[in-house]
Amino acid sequence: MAKYILVINPGSTSTKIALFEEESVVFENKISHSTEEIHVFRDVASQFEFRKNLIIEAVKENGFDLNRLDAVCGRGGLLKPIEGGTYIVNDEMIKDLTLAERGEHASNLGGIIARDLADDLNIPAYIVDPVAVDEMHDIARISGMPLIERPSLFHALNQKAIAREVAKDKNVKYENLNMVMAHLGGGISVAAHHFGRVVDVNNALDGEGPMSPERSGTVPMGPLYKMAFSGDYTLDEIKKMNYGKGGLVAYLGTNDAREIVERIENGDEKAKLYYDAMAYQIAKEIGAYATVLKGKLDCIVLTGGLAHEKYLVSRIKERIEFISEVLVYPGENELLSLAQGALRVLKGEEEPKTY
Ligand SMILES: Nc1ncnc2c1ncn2[C@@H]1O[C@H](COP(=O)(O)OP(=O)(O)OP(=O)(O)O)[C@@H](O)[C@H]1O
Ligand SMILES: CCCC(=O)O
Fold this sequence. Notes:
7-stranded mixed sheet; 5-stranded mixed sheet; binds butanoic acid
C-alpha cells in the first residue's frame, strides 16, 4: 500500500508544506507570513497554533482527508547535538524545541506541529536531519578560546540528502565516500563528509565561514568587539549585520544573485568585486575542508540555490578544480528529503532514532 506523508518546513517568512504519496508530490503549498503577522508573537514556539491552523486549512483546501495519512514529518530545529537520521518526535524533543535553549529558529516548529497533528491521527511524527546534526570529530570542536566550543549547525537536511544522491549516482554507499560539500543558499555551509559522517562544518548560523547572500560569515574579531562595546549599536543591530542583513545584502542591497549577475553584465564593477569576493571565500573554505580529509576526496559537491548560478559556479570551480572532481547538484528539495526520511523508516529500511 502506498504511504501518504505530510511534510512541514517552517521558515522565517513562510511555512512550506507538501503531501507525498511515496516520493511523488500530491500537492505542495508555500504559505507566506507577513512581517506584521509574525511580529505579534513573542517567540517562535508561540506561532504554533497560528501556523498549525494555516496548515490544516491548506490541506483541506487541497481536498485531502488527513485521516489517510501514514505519518507527519517536520523539519527539525535547534535541538541538542545529535547524529543524522530520522527521529521519532518524543516528549523530550518537544520540550527542547519549545524551550529553544539552543536558540530560536523557525524550524523548531517543524517537530512541534508534526507531533500535534500526528497525535490527533494516532500516527507517528518524525523529524529528519535537523540543523543540530552533530557528527564532528573532537579536534574540530576546539576554537582557540576555552570558553567557546565550535558547534555543528548547518544545512544538514540538504547536505545529507544530496550526499545520498551523490552516492547513488556513483553507485557506492554514502558510508564509503569522502567529499567536501558546499550548500550555497541564503546561508552557506561547507562540510567535510567522511564515510557517512559530517566530521567538520562551518557554523552557518553564527558568523563562521564564507559570506553569503544574507550573512557576513567570519569577520575580524578586534573591530567586531570594539563595535560591540562602542555604544553605537544594539545587540540586535549587530546580530542583523551578521545574520539577515550581512554579506551581499549589506554590500549591494540585495540577496538576489540573479539581479547581481545582471548588474555585473551591465558593467557594475562594485557588484563584480563583492560577488567575486563571495566566490573567493567559498573556494577558500572548500580548500580548507579538503585538508580535513587530508586531500583524499572522491569529489567536491556544490548544491543549494546559488549552485544554479553559472557565473558563481565557474568562479568557484577555477580555484578548486585542482583538488578533486567538482559535481554540481543545484537547488535543494527539503520537502522531498523529509518525505524520503520518513519513508525509509515506514518501509523498515532504517531504524528510527530516539532523541
Ligand atoms: N535558479 C537560480 N538561478 C540563479 N540564482 C538562484 C536561483 N535560485 C536561487 N538563486 C539564488 O540563490 C540564493 C539563495 O536562494 P535560495 O532561495 O536557494 O535560499 P534559501 O533557501 O532562502 O536559503 P537556505 O538555502 O540558506 O535555506 C539567492 O541569492 C538566489 O538569488
Ligand atoms: C544553518 C542551517 C539553517 C539556516 O541557514 O537557517
